[in-house]
Amino acid sequence: MVVTDLFVGEIATELLKQLLEISRKSGLCKSNAKSLMAGINELLPIIQEIKFSGVELPSNRQFHLDHLSRTLSEGLELSKKVLKSNRWNVYKSLQLVRKMEKIEKKIYMFINGPLQLHLLADVHHMRFETAERFDKLEWSAKKLEESIGNFKTGLGGGGGGWVEEAVKKLEEEEMNWEGSFGNNFYSGLGIEEGKRKVKEMVIEWENLNVVGICGIGGSGKTTLATEICRDDQVKCHFGNRILFLTVSQSPNVENLRAKICRFITGNDGIDGMGYDLVPKWNLQFEWGIGTPMLIVLDDVWSLPVLEQLIFKVAGCKTLVVSRFKFPNVCNATYDVELLRRDEAISLFCHSAFGKTSIPPAADSNLVKQIVDECKGLPLALKVIGALLRDQPEMYWVSAGQRLSRGEPICESHESKLLDRMAISTQFLSKNVRECFLDLGSFPEDKKIPLDVLINMWVEIHDVDPEEAFAILVELSNKNLLTLVKDARAGDMYSSYYEICIMQHDVLRDLAIHLSSCGDVNDRKRLLMPRREAQLPKEWERNADRPFDAQIVSIHTGEMKEMDWFRMDFPKAEVLILNFSANDFFLPPFIDEMPKLRALVMINYSPSNATIGNFSIFSSLANLRSLWLEKVSIGRLSESTVPLKNLRKISLILCKINKSLDESVIDLSHIFPSLSELTIDHCEDLIHLPSSICRIQTLKSLSITNCHNLEKLPPNLGNLKSLQILRLSACPTLKMLPPCVCDLVWLKFLDISHCVNLKGLPEWIGKLSRLEKIDMRECSLMKLPYSAASLESLRKVICEEDVFWLWKEMKKVNLDVQVAEKCYGVDWLDDD
Question: What architecture (CATH level 2) is domain 428-517?
Fold first, then answer.
């Protein structure tokens, strides 16, 4: 190692001492000294690591270290001059400040440039060397296997050689080790034993790099894996370095690999940076390679996908959760067993009666008959138990008879599971059952925004939004879906966008199974269960006849014009386009959907998709609801045929591209009947076009998480029908225009998380119908006097310092609540 390396650390240490003195004594240079100290403190651990590593550096790295050494020496000399200078000599102090700023700039250029590249190069070298060593080990193992194969492993017809005996002994030990127990993952029965065995594989067996949890759908594999991640002993062993990823049937492998790379290299704190491995040197240095870490891959379906997600890195252990075994990848696998009878009865009773045993008033024999027909599957026990809860005895007898008439469940339970689970939908009312079947229209393991479902159900099931929400609650109570909601959701002014749902993949499979019966042209729902590169061949073979589907759900990657073929959908009312692509050409057969009422486009790619054939919207005369997510919106023109029936538009994570610019289009002309407009996470929205304010039918306007929105149109008060105005999380918005006070029908105002909003309009008291204000995390220091005149105001949510301002008004019947801190962006991790 070149001698210069030995002195860089010493110079940095001495410079740090000098800067500490400057920060205490010198006035003008104080802030520069502190900033420079922060940079040196970041550099010092790396310098010390290089200094004591004993490794000779390449010439290019030595050149950078020499340059850094000279820069630090200059800083040391400069700091001595600063300490000797007269603090009252302002001119000289300013000169020294500028010189310190130059030194600081050089150091930070080194930190953000060459240093990060060196660290990234080290990671790649390490991965290459590790892979090379594993290749050598695999070659050695193969040679050893060939040598062992030359031995005789059996003598005559019934004898056994030493290798055969060893293998047999290992198999017996594995069976004894795995044992048998019942897993009740919903009421806690038996889970400790399962945790103990998986923890033993994960923590104690250091030679097992990849281990698995295997079981049929609904048996509690994911629950066990989640409990492992939450276990204190596991978290301590891995130093909280645990990554949980859901893979699913249609995974975005590149994105998953990028997440794993960031996690292994210590850059998992960096989010939203695409597929690039962006180095963050301090985390990289802190964790390093070889630090114990656990990666959990849940819901794995494919061996080729799994092989791409396994990283051979020292200290990194992978836990694979799947319905299938992967013996070529997993060193050991734990088989999740179904429940024993006593555990099954306990779980069923917990779901059906809210107790852990059969109540005296219940028919014990009937309960045991139904439990036995569920064959120990936790999900079936929970769903059927919830279904029969509070039902009359005749329902129970009918359920028992239906279950008993089914064919016996095979050994694996998998092939007959859907037939058994179908019983859970036969006691639902017609509308509720239809809504359950609609859930098969969405990709697996993705959160479904409730707004999308509500819009669908309102249009095709002839229900109002409140009834549609009640159906959702009923399905949730029957354990046919899971509600995931924001902490604020639930009151009458909550946006449905704040709520989403998740569904177990077995229940989704059930919905698809029940929707796919009969001839493909006669089905009510035409669905693609998973993402495919092209449309199903079955559809193409039958495209010569019209399809009677009311709902059409397509799940593909990038689609070009030539990838589509003509299809006739005379009865289609809902079209759902799920895709993952940077470019997507809208299907030409939209022209053949004269009754289309709801269009949903959701892009699951990390970047916004450019949409081709955007002009086809002109043919959607009956469209009432439009949901666009993560797409670039094409420009509309004055020649666009007005969509006179369109009531709702939702633009989520979209690029607006000035498509709403009033100089190009009059929105009130194109959307004359619009009642709800939602724009969320649209970063390029800077000004809200004033033509929106001419849509006299608009009742709800939600502009949320648009971080570059600077101002609202001055004619906003023209929206005389507006009842809900949401402007949440728009940090660049500094004021509400005075015309807000002219919104005579306004009932709810949401300005939460608008951190730079200076105040409420002076004449806000004119809003006589305003019932609720959400102003959490706003920097308001005072309230206008007219706020005391808000006669209908019943609820205010605010920060503690504003709480007392409202209380001082002594308004009767006003509920003022201090906001709870709530942070969460889980909905973004859906790749």
Answer: Orthogonal Bundle (1.10)
